[in-house]
Amino acid sequence: MMTLKVNGQDHKIDADPDTPLLYVLREDLKLNAAKFGCGLGQCGACTVIVDGKAVLSCVTPLLLLEGKKVTTLEGLGTVETPAPIQRAFIEEQAAQCGYCIAGMMMRAQALLARNSKPTDAEIRAELQLNLCRCGTHMRILRAVHRASHLMQTADASPAQRSAP
Amino acid sequence: MNGPVLLNRRGVLAGGGALIVSFSLGDAFADEQSAAPAPKPPGSLAQTPYLDAWIRIDADGTITALTGKAELGQGFKTAFQQIAAEELDVPFKSVNVVTADTRRTANEGYTSGSNSMKYSGTAIQNAAAQVRELLIAEAARRLELPAESLKTADAAVIAPDGRKLGYGELVAGDMLHVQAQPKSKLKDPATYSIMGQPVPRVDIPAKVTGGAAYIQDMRLPGMVHARVVRPPSYGAELVAPDSASVENLPGVVKVVRDGNFLAVVATKEYQAVKAMRALASRAKWRETARLPKQDDLPNVITGLPSQDTTIYTQSNPSATATKIIEASYTRPYQAHGSIGPSCAVAQSVNDAMTVWTHTQGVYPDRAGIAEMLRVPPTSVRLIHVEGSGCYGHNGADDAAADAALIARAMPGIPVRVQWMREQEHAWEPFGPAMVTKLKASLDGDGAIVDWNFEVWSNTHSMRPGGAGSMLAAQQMAQPFALPAPKPLPLPEGGGDRNAIPFYKFPNAKVVHHFIPKMPLRISAMRALGAYHNVFSIESFMDELAVAAGADPVEFRLKHLEDARGRDVIEKAAKEFGWQKGQKAPPDRGYGFAFARYKNLAAYCAIATEVEVNRQSGRPRLVRAVAAVDSGQVVNPDGLTNQIEGAILQSMSWTLYESVTFDDVRITSIDWQTYPILRFDAVPDKVDVHIINRPGQPFLGSGETGQGPAAASIANAIADATGKRLRDLPLTRKRIKGAIDA
User: Fold this and answer.
1) Nearest to B626 by CA among B701, B726, B528, B542
2) N or C: more exposed end of chain B, with fewer CB within 10 A?
3) B235 and B161 in one domain?
4) Given CB atoms, is B105 within the 8 Å cutoff of chain A?
5) Which ranges in chain A belong to alpha helices (H)?
């Protein structure tokens, strides 16, 4: 039994220490966003943020996560109150099947957290690890740029966020 | 009195007679009825004519549109909601769309061939329009007003004096359980307020916030997790499973063995993964070397016995040739490569089997599963739940069969089967390898006078219907044999899809060499044979244009009569900035290609600019400009999204992808061994220009871009390097080899 901090909440987890984080998130915590794509760290569908860094949850065993903060897409916002990255992906309609999108968003979120105005080349380099099979790449790039813009707008005028 | 003959008895009773008299749709039908065989209503209404199979309105005003097609990420669920809302005259948000379910929706076969808009969209459009007319008629009866004086808006019928009757109030009993008329009073496209708008997709909010959106996200109470241990190669036989030691592993509930079918079930998912690995490492299989030589694939393909059919001839002996050109093009086996491996959930309760699946055909898949379980189809229900994008027949149906077979052994308990990455890559049915041989001649004016096209291919569909199409049924102790492959009939075709030129040539001959023997497991992959046939035709058109000293765009227009085809070519050329005699910057090239998908669906022309690194041979698509005519546009952003995706995916197939194998096993089993497009190769810009055709039939769009994108890129590489590559994929190595040759 270990404690895992996910999206700001502590959870008691009863799973073997070698269990990849992905299975704990999906099965024990019933979180849908992180996806099983390869189990090999090759596609990025399982990407989550651990202590501010994008991490492939399918190849990260539970035992490495003691005392660390895990953030999944669910922790960023909701349908009713979407985070800038979520708003941006909705506004750009940046999905076809959408299976890879949660992973794309988490990697982009980690990038934007450390570099609020990334260049197109920086976004591409960051997302190089993540695969999309539907060919939604152009929209994904646009959505990350839009998220960057939304975050700056929100930071510049915090009053607007609380406006009705 | 006319029209009422088609109204169902219950409809007559519910309507009380007056409804029928004032039901104006009958007039058009009566006129046509006298001309012998009764015309059928359009789209899938022809097979499933009852209006309430498509549109339902409850007394509380709830409106449901139903489709037998499966949402695969193409976004048609949103488009169908737009169509229903538009023709019913109700707000977009008030319609709920229900997709493929053998208990609830019509049998529309497979969701394939870019046919969802054409068949299901058309059915929903006409059913909605006819339901609206029925509601107006009923309101006219109740209000004692002529139907012509009534209007509809916001889910209500409104009288000139302001009286209003909501749709929910108007619907009584089985009023909508009537057969569709052959013709509908469709709205004038000029009045559309919902159709034609870029309405945001209904499924995206859940997908970007972690909502339950996929079959992989299903969690039923008491559900257990299964993993299948697939054989290491085609036809391998299980000699010794050694299941005893695995049964004692933590969480393991059961090991299921049925002949060569081997699976393990555990209470927690990762326990199932670990048990699967243990079981796989201890199982002994007898394998046979039966795969062809990969490095000699084109000769293997053309050397297999074939059934040869001349599918097209055109003759005009007066044309005289002065120059003859020949070329052969090849395509390897390619993988659908869904990002999410296949998954299914099944539960057997009191001998009734329910399977949740991302299959493209709930009804045919049900038939296959029922046959495999040796039970009547009525005792099996299949419910479509979205999966990862499939782009054709991937592992979805097999995973559904796996789940059903395991669930049968565990009555009452929901069983979730999740394939592993290597299983999807090794066991999915691939897009078939193909070879084409072309020969054409030009006259003194640089016009094509003679065109010969031959294509060698397997079938392009081994989809279920029969149990033998599914791995589990093939691997059982009492196995089902793989059904005999059949060529898919023209005009849509399979290996010969788009093999007949859409251009007009005085002399032409097209031969389809259908190859029944399938060295690798194959089936339908997005665009079927059209991907390679259009790649071949449109590459060859450029080779001929070079021989004729003509501009590629001009050369195409010279041989094309079809006005809508000419329009998309001219549109793409114009928006790209295509100019006769243009010269691309150093190490760059311009390419162009065009096709009308299946020669009967959407038109698509794509211009590209490609950069080639002469030192490494590495190609990069810099920009693409597409023009598409898909008939009446329902959701322009959805259409654009499909074409953008087609260009990027086809680029990945075209530049990088081939299934690899040795003489025993498939060796491309993950993203390392089967590389696809990554962000470093994503173009700078992709522009899609839509030519809307108000009031024209929906032509679909899912597959129309695959062939033109491939050929346009190949033509741009030839323009950049001066070398023509004819063997897919056009890899860095092959380009480098051609440059150095």
Assistant:
1) B701
2) C
3) no
4) no
5) 21-23, 84-91, 101-114, 120-127, 137-156, 158-162
The dihedrals phi and psi of B28, each to the nearest 5 degrees, come to -60, -40
Of the residues B195, B224, B243, the one at which a domain ends: B195
Domain closes at, from B195, B230, B254: B195
Residues B367 and B394 in one domain: yes
- Among A77, A96, A100, select the one facing B209 at the smallest CB separation: A77
**Looking at the complex, does the CB of residue A63 fall below 8 Å from at least one CB of chain B?**
no
Residues B367 and B446 reside in one and the same domain: no
Number of domains in chain B: 3
Helix (H) or strand (E) holding B282, with range, is helix B269-282
Domain carrying residue B230 = 215-287+342-427
CA distance B493 to chain A (A): 24
Nearest to A27 among B209, B210, B269 (CB): B269
Please report, for residues B5, B17, B21, B34, the alpha-carbon distance to residue B30 in angstroms, rounded to integers and kept in the order given. 10, 18, 13, 7
Residues 12-31 in A contacting B (C-alpha not used; CB under 8 Å) = 15-16, 19-20, 23, 26-27, 30-31
Partner A contacted by B72 (CB < 8 A): yes
B604-618 pLDDT tens trace: 999 999 999 999 999
Reported CATH class of domain A84-158: mainly alpha
Distance CA(B373)–CA(B618), nearest Å, equals 51
**What letter does residue B191 receive in the DSSP assignment?**
G
A102 close to B (CB below 8 A): yes
- β-pairing, B448-457 with B507-514? parallel
Residue B242 confidence (pLDDT): 81
Say whether pLDDT at B278 is over 90.
yes
**Residues B84-103: what's their mean pLDDT?**
97
pLDDT digits (tens, 9 = 90+) for B144-178: 999 999 999 999 999 999 999 999 999 988 999 99
Using one digit for the tens of pLDDT, what is the confidence trace for B104-132?
999 999 999 889 999 999 999 999 999 99
**Type of residue found at B49:** P
Q: What is the mean pLDDT of chain B?
A: 94
Question: Does B131 share its domain with B229?
Answer: no
Q: Is A56 on the interface with B (CB under 8 A)?
A: no
pLDDT at B35: 54
Q: What superfamily in CATH does domain A2-74 come from? A: Beta-grasp domain (3.10.20.30)
Domain residue limits, chain A: 2-74, 84-158
Q: Are residues B363 and B503 in the same domain?
A: no
Q: Give the nearest partner residue to B207 out of A19, A26, A95, using CB atoms.
A: A95
* B60-75 pLDDT, tens digit each: 999 999 999 999 999 9
- Residues 17-46 on B with a CB inside 8 Å of A are none
Position B279 pLDDT exceeds 80: yes
Residues in B closer than 8 angstroms to A73, CB to CB, are 208-210
Q: Which of B213, B338, B649 sits opposite A98 (nearest CB)?
A: B213
CA nearest to A83 within chain B: B209
B693 and B730 share one domain: yes
Instruction: Give the mean model confidence (pLDDT) for residues B519-534.
Output: 98
- Asked if residue B97 and residue B18 are part of one domain, the reply reads yes
CB contact A2 to B (< 8 Å): no
Is B665 part of any domain? yes
pLDDT band at residue A12 under the 50/70/90 scheme = very high
Axis crossing angle, helix B396-408 with helix B362-373, rounded to the nearest 10: 40
CA distance B272 to A51: 30
B421, A37: Cβ pair inside 8 Å? yes
pLDDT number for residue B468: 97
Q: Indicate whether B559 pLDDT > 90.
A: yes
pLDDT of residue A153: 87
For residue A66, the distance in angstroms to the closest alpha carbon of chain B comes to 19
Q: Are the beta carbons of B420 and A39 separated by less than 8 Å?
A: yes
Cβ-proximal residues to B292 (8 Å cutoff; 6+ apart), any chain: B300, B519
